[in-house]
């Protein structure tokens, strides 16, 4: 092996080690999001303590992203056990909702538990709501295996009837009000809600380990809301949102939301109002119909992919040679990397779209009906992914019709949205997405 090849081999090994190190140190800390004006009447809303309960963490995330708090304060933790959400597991290191009594400092969840305890005990917090998806349908009297006192779905849970505190200590009364409010808006009668009092202090050793019991022992009103796992995701979220809004009404917290609380609107928001940006918005990628694999995706040479998600349930995990976009329990897309130096460039790009001149920023998404042209740029090279013209080194100054771009190179499954990449010498500076309107 000559010295040149040996040097190249060593550089390659170092590069691989750096990438693997990045993958190993990636953290899954939960998000803590403050909404509204800080006061002493704060609702602490928690989702994602168990990663196999998507209705719970999806509802909490919608409060974080699609609600404006006009009066009062809401603190939202939509992804308390984020690693378990990514792994689609109740708890990779055991059930986190059984770790609020004694817990060894060597437990992998120890730091997360200590952090959430701090927020629970914060003096501003007056009411805590922990969201869950539970099995079957709770009924006070046994009907069958699915409808039973042993089931947890479709109920509001309290640990005891009353708590001697200045505000919201009438737990049974509050829970009953919430249940009555939900039952006025049932999708079907079998979804009826009830109040489930676990009477934890009377010797329920398992419930003594839970988040809500820790809270009431720290003189905080605490409730859990359960939606049935037998319901589809958007219906679980529907019932969680009804419960959350009922608690906010009781607390006098005023809000505005960006969608109607209907199952159709909720499903649309969950599935379609999602995107992710890269490198300070030099790339913006809609995810509602993204292809499962995007090849030759520009990623900085150091292997670190800087991204900003539109939703706190979204992250990117390095798995082997690929970067996988996760959204809650879902894997949306795999990015096959094209490692290249990424640099910042703030200039606008001049397009002619359907005969009309437009100035476009890197990271923008633009639409044409029939054709577009990118005006020549002195020091930039342009690559329109899916368009082939072997006579051009840079695909500028040429009119491109929609039937000249191969649909299989689109970023979306419909074959309508295409990447236009911009390079300065051997460096990547950003991307514009261009879609053809139907």
Automatic annotation (TrEMBL):
InterPro entries: Metallo_peptidase_C (IPR033397), Peptidase_M99 (IPR031489). CDD domains: M14_CP_Csd4-like (cd06243). Gene3D superfamilies: Zn peptidases. Residues 348-436 form the Metallo-carboxypeptidase C-terminal domain. It comes from the Bacteria. Pfam families: Peptidase_M99, Peptidase_M99_C. Residues 16-270 form the D,L-carboxypeptidase peptidase domain. This is Deacylase. The lineage of its organism: Bacteria, Pseudomonadati, Campylobacterota, Epsilonproteobacteria, Campylobacterales.
